[in-house]
TrEMBL record:
UniProt keyword list: Hydrolase
AB hydrolase-1 domain location: 62-275
Secretion signal, residue range per the UniProt entry: none
Top-rank taxon, per record: Bacteria
Protein known as: Alpha/beta fold hydrolase
Entry's Gene Ontology molecular function annotations: hydrolase activity
UniProt KW Hydrolase keyword: yes
Length: 287
């Protein structure tokens, strides 16, 4: 299914490996296991699969944006454009963001949103899924990989084959930088949630976590043997370098850590050259 320009839901039978689908995105609303509608977009690759056994054949990236992002943000679309040079791309708006339903839980139940997007990507015929998350999305891809791996939920269709976490926190409730103190005000205060709703198109749930979800650093050891890449800028204004180092240390010998000189935070700060290197890394992880 997709959404036409008038906002109506229409059926689509596009097949991702087909010449007829080249250059034609699909837009639809997915449904999570807890009943939230998730605005989602499929972008086919910028090339036609030639059947030669290329390592990019069948690859799809599932991109998880940062807090206050959505599928239509220019910085998210720039990521999509970069990754379509390597495979297909599924993007979606987390709950409470953009046209998706529900309210943001700032990284907790968002794992269900990502699981729905991964299942959709596989249902379109893609054999290999690489999840790529930025900031809040970076924490979600880590927890998703830990919770939907072989030893936990089994090969249900929601599992990923490789994980890229960019600009993610290692631990919850961090307030050590001014941007994070502002974010906590936005999330925890009624007036902050009003700013989130009307200023950032982000509807934030008013309840605190209960129970507190598995933290990113607790999730990382459970991801192996799924390939894991951790990316962080040395000028990140939200999370200093002890966060990515803590994540990498939690998976000794398994996680690959890239500390990017001069890079700030998340999608807005990721240069095109870095996105190309992530694409190359994803292609190289074919088992």
């Amino acid at each position: 299914m997709r959404i036409d320009p008038a906002g109506r839901v229409v059926r689509s039978t596009a097949i991702p490996h087909s010449e007829t689908n080249r250059g034609t995105p699909i837009r639809t609303f997915l449904h999570t296991t807890d009943g939230v509608t998730i605005d989602s977009v499929y972008d086919p690759p910028a090339f036609v699969y030639d059947g030669s056994g290329s390592s990019a054949r069948g690859l799809v990236f599932v991109v998880a944006h940062g807090f206050t992002g959505d599928v239509d943000r220019p910085h998210v679309r720039r990521v999509v454009e970069a990754f379509t040079q390597y495979g297909a791309v599924v993007t979606f708006s987390f709950r409470g963001h953009g046209a998706s339903g529900g309210a943001s839980t700032v990284g907790d139940r968002e794992v269900l949103d990502l699981a729905a997007a991964v299942e959709w990507a596989r249902s379109l015929g893609h054999a290999r899924v690489v999840t790529v998350g930025f900031s809040m999305g970076g924490s979600v891809v880590l927890r998703h990989a830990a919770l939907y791996g072989d030893e936990h939920e089994g090969r249900t269709g929601a599992h990923t084959d490789a994980v890229v976490s960019v600009s993610a926190p290692a631990r919850w409730y961090y307030r050590g930088t001014a941007p994070m103190r502002k974010l906590h005000w936005l999330v925890t205060r009624p007036e902050g949630r009003l700013v989130g709703r009307y200023g950032f198109r982000t509807r934030i749930h008013h309840k605190e976590w209960d129970p507190v979800p598995l933290s990113p650093v607790e999730a990382v050891p459970r991801i192996a043997p799924t390939p894991l890449l951790i990316v962080h800028g040395d000028r990140d204004g939200y999370f200093p370098l002890d966060h990515p180092r803590m994540l990498a240390d939690a998976a000794p010998g398994h996680a690959e850590l890239w500390l990017e000189h001069g890079m700030g935070h998340a999608e807005n700060a990721a240069p095109d050259e870095l996105l190309r290197r992530i694409g190359d890394w994803a292609v190289s992880q074919e088992s």
